[in-house]
Design brief:
- This is HTH-type transcriptional regulator YybR.
- By secondary structure, the chain is mainly alpha-helical.
- Helix content is 63%, strand content 12%.
- The protein is built from 6 helices and 3 strands.
- Strands 1-3-2 form a 3-stranded antiparallel beta sheet.
- The chain is extended and about 65 Å long.
């Protein structure tokens, strides 16, 4: 049985960026400024330290994120988006815009349903 090559390409692409936190991490790093681990934790208050570490390692393996360790005491580590990771910018921006529109649509539907119930 042969695998569907189009499906395989989608799976490979999604495996690289899908997860509850990966797109959000990438979105923050796409803002251009390198971020330290604790800065990312502050931007994502609901993520656990373990999950942030795991996702950053996976993104680094995919060459979407670069980790730079500065030889100083205490150690300083910064994460930034790679040039390759920058290629995700239009995709993540479009996804973000769709999410905003989707939330608005759901809110309008909820308000319409509430209005119908009160009539």
């Amino acid at each position: 049985m042969q695998k569907n090559p189009v499906q395989c390409q989608f799976v490979v692409a999604l495996d690289s960026i899908v997860g509850k936190w990966k797109p959000i991490i990438l979105y923050h790093l796409l803002q251009g400024k390198p971020l330290r681990f604790n800065e990312l934790r502050r931007l994502l208050p609901d993520i656990t330290q373990r999950m942030l570490t795991l996702h950053l390692r996976e993104l680094e393996e995919e060459e979407l994120v670069k980790r730079v360790i500065y030889p100083q005491i205490p150690p300083k580590v910064e994460y930034s988006i790679t040039e390759y990771g920058m290629s995700l910018s239009p995709i993540l921006e479009t996804l973000h815009q769709w999410g905003v529109a989707h939330v608005e649509r759901k809110q309008l539907k909820k308000e319409k349903n509430e209005q119908t119930e009160t009539d």
